[in-house]
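Need NAD(P)-dependent oxidoreductase's 3D structure for a figure. Predict it.
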Amino acid sequence: MKSQIRIGLLGTGLMGQPVARRLAAAGYSVAVWNRSPEKALPLTRAGITIKQSSAQLLADSDVIICLLSDATACDQVIFNQDALHSVGKNTTIIMMSTLSPDIVVEQARKASSVQAHYIDMPVSGGTIGAEKGSLSLMAGGDRKIVDSLRPLLSHLGKVTHVGGVGAGQLTKLANQIIVAGTLSLLSEAFTLAQQGGADPAKVREALLGGFADSTLLQHQGERMVKGDFEARGAAKWQLKDTRSAVALAKQLDLTLPLTETVNQLFSQMIDAGEGELDHCAIIKQIQRLNNVLI
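Structure prediction for NAD(P)-dependent oxidoreductase:
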């Protein structure tokens, strides 16, 4: 029964809250922990338990979903030696945070040392996808474990097994290259249209349904032309991912000129103090470079 599976979720930020709510609404027993407990308080209205310590959550969970911000936070909360010993035998750790492939391989090794299972499963689809249950979940790890989790994960979105541990993060890096690059190109397209005398909102409308259409044009493109830059996916995290992609490319002796340029653009945006804005606010950086304002 669903209620017999104890789900523990670490990190109740923009993605963690809707994920927790959907699982609770599906009938699962869900507990959460967050560094700032007050951010998790609204979840109690959905019947979700707030654990007072991360160690307590680790010990009391059959499935641990990690949506912490970065590798440092993950290591501090789960993968230091003391924390690991709180994880029960045969517990499954689902790593939904976006990390580098080499980091998740090492985390999987540590999980194995306490006889826990580890699945590398970053997600794409943003807060809208998390709220609607339409996320893309990119799974790296033991196929049998992934398949056993499908009934649970079906409430969050579509699961694709892409290979062993690390393959999920490789897939997410590919996703982030496409997202960051597309947002940058949309920014240039709207800026060009504006300066040429066209209405960017009408240009976007005209492009919908054609070869240039995409989820990003539909959603982030609309936010760009309206100037709605409230963070649903902060630019500082986009930069973290493009930096990871550039670093991995260098390790693999690859040259990714477009990704390197996009990485530079997001770096300039963060240097301008706009890291807390949504990643679609990259249009502001393109505007700044051209001394124009849409």
